[in-house]
């Protein structure tokens, strides 16, 4: 099904299907595919209920590419957005990313506000 999404532009546009493809790329560690997905879909989901999921994909990319400044920026945007991902995979991804401290950061952990915000969702999950 993932290949259908990449091969057939007509298959795109359903948030759950689109997000499943992005999360699969993140789970596999395929940063090229996840980055390509983000470039293709950022405008579509920049606002609305799926934007938290797009930011979760962005956090995954920033963390795995080693961009602590980028990750801090994404985590701050996620905390400001005050919501949870649509898909549980997004919550799992964020929990995994937040569980690992930033090596280069001497400032307070940038994910702390987001961690507090997501704590009830993580407990419920």
UniProtKB/TrEMBL annotation:
Domain of life: Bacteria
Alphabetic keyword roster: Plasmid
Protein name: Uncharacterized protein
Annotated source species: Streptomyces pratensis (strain ATCC 33331 / IAF-45CD)
């Amino acid at each position: 099904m993932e290949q259908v999404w990449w091969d057939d532009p007509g298959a795109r546009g359903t948030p759950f299907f689109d997000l499943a493809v992005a999360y699969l790329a993140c789970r596999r560690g395929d940063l090229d595919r996840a980055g390509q997905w983000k470039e293709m879909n950022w405008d579509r989901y920049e606002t609305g209920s799926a934007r938290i999921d797009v930011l979760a994909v962005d956090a995954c990319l920033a963390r795995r590419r080693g961009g602590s400044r980028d990750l801090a920026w994404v985590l701050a945007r996620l905390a400001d957005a005050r919501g949870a991902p649509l898909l549980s995979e997004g919550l799992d991804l964020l929990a995994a990313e937040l569980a690992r401290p930033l090596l280069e950061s001497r400032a307070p952990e940038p994910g702390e506000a987001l961690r507090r915000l997501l704590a009830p969702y993580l407990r419920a999950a």
